[in-house]
Amino acid sequence: MILSRILEHKKAELRRKQSRGYLSELKQRILDLSRPMGFALSLDANRKPGSPALIAEVKKASPSLGLLRPEFHEHFDPVGIAKSYYTYGASALSVLTDNDFFQGSLDNLAAIKRQVPLPALNKEFMVGDIQFYEARAYGADAVLLIVAALERRQLLDFHLLAKELSMDVLFEVHHERELDTVLEWIPDVRLIGINNRDLKTFSTDIAVTIRLAKRIPSDKLMVSESGIHTRSHVEQLVEAGIHAMLVGESLIKAESIESKIAELRGTEISHGCAKEEFR
To answer: Which DSSP letter does residue 197 get?
Structure first.
């Protein structure tokens, strides 16, 4: 199972980071930063009828597909990609920071936050306290908590730690049991992400969002994640009452980010000919 492999590797990685000096360095870095941007607030403010708010993901590779574009072997420009997302209408960013499985980095997150004025989610497998200090120190406005990867006590403790660091939390669920855990144990949850990807097989199915959305109270912001490739997919999400969509692979693989965002959001391209960002 891919998730189990990633989590075991992540725990080993964190053991190598456990030092009082490193944590102190992160806390000092946080003191020099301005307050995080409102991730949930941006999503809520930018959703429109027929078009959920867009969380656009900066992603170089995945465990199942490897590099998402052949040219990433020699050139990957996370800041340039994030700027394109901002230019063409994204409401927020998701930045992969895991190195071993996704070829991401915290340095990518920091560079993007210095140059792109959008709130950013640190897309990481959070299993230890120090990762939250890392996320904040490198500029994250929100963090991801994967319910399938954590015990209930961890969900509670990590949620509180993120709040102490002024970051929003996106709770990611995959089926009814996980959703019920979040709603029961963290009643003040604001952001609930429904991952359409099966973490055992890495296959995707939009039907997961459609099924689980019916169980989520109306006061929560619902985010559909993964497997969103066409306008038809988005229309299904709109029908299900989804407030935001997290899209990565279909944007990264598109010849034109502008055209793909326009397609997904059901809008016209306003800049004439579509720009081919990756050529």
So the answer is: B
Query: Exposed (0-12), middle (13-18) or buried (19+): which is 54, by Cβ within 10 Å?
Result: buried
Q: Where are the beta strands (DSSP E) in 42-157?
A: 53-58, 61-62, 66-67, 92-96, 120-123, 142-146
Which residue range is the domain that position 214 belongs to?
Answer: 2-265
Number of folded domains that form the chain: 1
On whether residue 20 sits in a domain, the answer given is yes
Q: Is residue 276 part of a domain?
A: no
Give catalytic residues, as residue numbers: 57, 59, 123, 172, 195, 225-226
Per-residue pLDDT of the chain (279 residues; tens, 9 = 90+): 788 899 998 999 888 888 779 999 999 999 999 999 999 999 999 988 889 999 999 999 998 889 999 899 889 999 999 999 999 999 999 999 999 999 999 999 999 999 999 999 999 999 999 999 999 999 999 999 999 999 999 999 999 999 999 999 999 999 999 999 999 999 999 999 999 988 777 788 999 999 999 999 999 999 999 999 999 999 999 999 999 999 999 999 999 999 999 999 998 765 544 444 554
